[in-house]
Write a structure and sequence with these properties.
2 helices, Jelly Rolls, alpha+beta, five-stranded antiparallel sheet, elongated
C-alpha cells in the first residue's frame, strides 16, 4: 500500500505559513538613549532617559512630572479588525499623587491613580486595530518618579487570509484523497 506525503507536506506548509498581523513600536526600550520614534507632549518637565533602573537593556524613560500629565505617543500601522495587546513595564518610586494611563486614539483604556511603590510591573490593555492607531502612555508622579521601559504591541494569532484559503484547499484535497482511497479499497 502506497501512502502519499502530499497531505502531510501541505499541512506542514500551512502551519509554518500561518502568521499573525504585526505592528511594532519604534525604539520601544529607549535603547537609542533618547525618545526618537516617540512624540512627547503635555508637561515635559522632569522627563529624561536614564540608565538605572531599567527593565531590560541599557536605558529606560523616567517621568517626574508635577501637577499635570506628560504624554508619550506613537502612531503604529496595524491590521484593521485584529485584536492587539499594548503596554509596557512600569516602575514606581512611590508617593502620591501619581497617575499612569494608556490611551488608544485619544480614548483612555486604562487609568491608574495613586499607585503604591512597585518594581517593574507589566501594564497592558487590548484593543481592535483600525489600520493606523495612536497609542499614548501618560505619566504624572509629583513626589518621585515613574520609570517606563519595553513598550510592546502584539497581535492575537490570526491566520492571514491567504493562509486560510490555502488551508481550505488543503482540507478539500485531503477529503478527496480519502474518498478516492475508499473507492479503491471497496470501503
Amino acid at each position: 500500500m502506497r501512502r502519499s506525503l502530499v497531505p502531510i507536506a501541505t499541512i506542514t506548509v500551512l502551519l509554518i505559513g500561518t502568521g499573525a498581523a504585526r505592528a511594532d513600536f519604534v525604539n520601544p526600550g529607549f535603547e537609542t538613549g533618547n525618545f526618537s520614534g516617540w512624540t512627547l507632549s503635555g508637561n515635559t518637565d522632569f522627563v529624561t532617559i536614564v540608565t538605572s533602573p531599567v527593565h531590560s537593556g541599557n536605558f529606560a524613560a523616567e517621568f517626574g512630572t508635577i501637577g499635570s500629565l506628560t504624554f508619550l505617543s506613537q502612531t503604529v500601522s496595524d491590521t484593521a479588525g485584529v485584536t492587539y495587546t499594548v503596554g509596557g513595564w512600569l516602575q514606581n518610586d512611590g508617593g502620591t499623587p501619581n497617575e499612569f494611563d494608556i490611551e488608544v486614539n485619544g480614548v483612555t483604556r486604562l487609568d491608574l491613580l495613586n499607585l503604591p511603590g512597585q518594581v517593574y510591573t507589566q501594564e497592558s490593555i487590548t484593543f481592535v486595530g483600525t489600520g493606523s492607531d495612536t497609542i499614548t502612555f501618560s505619566f504624572r508622579q509629583d513626589p518621585a518618579f515613574f520609570h517606563f521601559d519595553d513598550a510592546f504591541i502584539t497581535a492575537s494569532a490570526v491566520p492571514e487570509p491567504a493562509s486560510l484559503a490555502i488551508f481550505g484547499t488543503a482540507l478539500a484535497g485531503i477529503g478527496l484523497l480519502r474518498r478516492s482511497r475508499r473507492r479503491r479499497t471497496g470501503g
